[in-house]
Design a protein that fits this description.
homodimer, alpha+beta, Uridine Diphospho-n-acetylenolpyruvylglucosamine Reductase, domain 3, Alpha-Beta Plaits, seven-stranded antiparallel β-sheet, 18 strands, 34% helix, 22% strand
Chain lengths: 460, 460
Amino acid sequence: MSREQFLEQLISTLGADVAQRGAEVPQRFWTDWSGTPPVQPLALVRPRSTEDVSALLRLCSQHRVAVVPQGGLTGLAGAAVPAQDAVAVSLERMNAIEEVNAQTGLMQVQAGVTLQTVQETAVNAGMVFGVDLGARGSCQIGGNVSTNAGGNGVLQHGMMRDQVLGLEVVLADGSVLPMLRPMIKNNTGYDLKQFFIGAEGTLGIVTRVLLRLRPAPQATATTLVAMPDFDSALAVLKRMQSRFGNSVAAYELMWDSFVQASMSWLKLSAPFAERHPLLALINIDGKDEAQLQSEMQEVLEQAMEAGEVLDAIVAQSVAQAQTLWKLREAPAELNNHMHPAINFDVSLPQADIGRFAEACEAAFTARWPGKHSLYFGHVGDGNLHVSVDGKTVNGECDAVEAELYGLVAAFKGSVSAEHGIGLHKKPYLYASRTPQELAAMRAIKLALDPLSLMNPGKVF
Amino acid sequence: MSREQFLEQLISTLGADVAQRGAEVPQRFWTDWSGTPPVQPLALVRPRSTEDVSALLRLCSQHRVAVVPQGGLTGLAGAAVPAQDAVAVSLERMNAIEEVNAQTGLMQVQAGVTLQTVQETAVNAGMVFGVDLGARGSCQIGGNVSTNAGGNGVLQHGMMRDQVLGLEVVLADGSVLPMLRPMIKNNTGYDLKQFFIGAEGTLGIVTRVLLRLRPAPQATATTLVAMPDFDSALAVLKRMQSRFGNSVAAYELMWDSFVQASMSWLKLSAPFAERHPLLALINIDGKDEAQLQSEMQEVLEQAMEAGEVLDAIVAQSVAQAQTLWKLREAPAELNNHMHPAINFDVSLPQADIGRFAEACEAAFTARWPGKHSLYFGHVGDGNLHVSVDGKTVNGECDAVEAELYGLVAAFKGSVSAEHGIGLHKKPYLYASRTPQELAAMRAIKLALDPLSLMNPGKVF
């Protein structure tokens, strides 16, 4: 059957409203936030139901046509970028909140709902959702599941995997796995849903998600802390955790280069009179805001006496806390200002993050004189982000990657903490996993997708 | 090659110290705590290293001989019971603690170390380990991983899955997967280790485990609370959680039948002057014991005024807390007193647990006049245990199971919350999962164990 005949059958099966030919596909579906060159897919399907997804995958399976699942297209590794001979499947129309139950702490949603809608729905029900990240307004829950998203809440609530109680997934042959039982404990055979979390759409399409919500904190205190060096930042984190335990809800570190970029791009005024090597944004949850602020102040004063803290602002209102957190929003602007940005998302042994950042900066400066790179991250869980200005390194993306990933290997880190492998990190997957591990991954891939039609060319 | 030739090769490859013929295998390896009739295996192998395990599996793979992995043999579903034509592999000699690091909160161990040793090692390092269960002195970490163990700490720290940061696993063909990277965040391809957690030894043998430790609470307060009915128990749980959040470390509910059995078997004196329908053991973690006790007292007084609490004891010392917790230790004695016990481990929607227990008792009494069953469980996470006296139901185990699992289905629960499927719950796996889910599980099983040599006949 020709491609043309396949397209005709696709449209007649799903309807012209759901399925479009490549030439009619809006450009916004051609690429994602990773900066990958746009590709016009063979067709775009925007299903309205699990049945639509199942019918699509059955048809593609019969005709050996590949499928690229798409969420909010905010990924930074290129996992959702279309292929010319593949059908792109956007979940954006499957965006219903199907159930919210504050009593049981559960929310069931379709995969195409945005993270922000999930967060707001949880708050309206008197709970909170455990994952938060900059792309919240655009990224979709199905994409968060497929990439095992991280973000600002991992320290307290874990990764996306830890928020998922159930999944509905459509396999490559169109069969539906209804793994949506609302049980915290359910040891009946393999925990199949785990296989699809973080699989980047290579094993099936996530169509529904049963999420765990967390109790809303009665109060949150926020502080922005200036520190002289990375060891001080770790010391302050330990002080906070030993005082507040698991109530330390966020500990986001920003190197000065990042803070300066953020102020310039987002037109923010300087938080402190002086510039400091490192700033940390810290949220602590608790019962009483005034008491939290006073306890936080106490810890900060001790840290200041120990020379770990140079200056600090404790937010006195929700509005002030939001203003402080604006400083952390620069990553959404990276591609507008960094020509384009070469982005990294690495995991490192926590104690080594400071030395790693210094080593990167030294390596970049030695090769490309001048300032090029921003450093920021979720230091509480060992995750550092690095963004390099593509122009100032003469667009030598491969050389920048080789420098940085060489250092990741030397520091025994991981090349992807939370963004995934997608297209962009495939060469480094082979450096991060043993041949035996890769063989096991491939065996599982073939078991669930024997024709290799699900997001081919991604991850592997 | 004959069985005899295989045995000779096995012994010559691994040494007579590591491999023994069936006739020489001590009876303690013939069955587990599930009450399954003992089976003498073809041979017993007690490896001293991952290399031993790998050599064994290569040999078994070459000769198409099945393998049954064994931990502490405390399982209640029969997953570690040998088969006549299979080699039993006990991990008991691989019991080293390889690394403990309080700074990073990590502990690396060999799979055969007991849970209790892990717990004590964590405490000695100033941390705690998140999983606790009655068999702690005998059960092994590898078995805890393979069954995704639950227990008393799930409310606060999650299941075993949530404590595992890395695994080393030997696959059926002898290849070793070294998934021990000490990274909280590591999205590089499929999170392979997830596939082996809860797989009950059907996908490979766990040889090493990298565990996350939790910060030790500075203080813990314990109370034993008497309540008139299940709805009151839920109301008290909500009161405690809304006051203490995630610091509610345990909430173990015991119906009076269980409490009476516990007092009689363990020769304990009655905690209260009167008998009450339900008792809850509650642990709350915090910073200051006296303050915790006074806050706990305050919550209990409010609950008493609301009629939810009939009586309560707040432990005034660690020794008194330990005495109160003795009441919960009866399950280790079940098989000595219940001729034998028919044990259940079900998950239910939390709000329905009380009605479910009543419905079970009514169904049992209607069919077998008299009292037969004990009810207890980790109510905070929806998990109820039921034990039925085998003698008083005339040993009609199948009929008891049919009654109870019928009710589980009617209440939309799960037939195994934490014990797993093993041998005993296989008929009910098929009622708990759809044919599509079972097909996906089988595909994964075949992908990783194409000759079906790993713990055959278990789970599926």
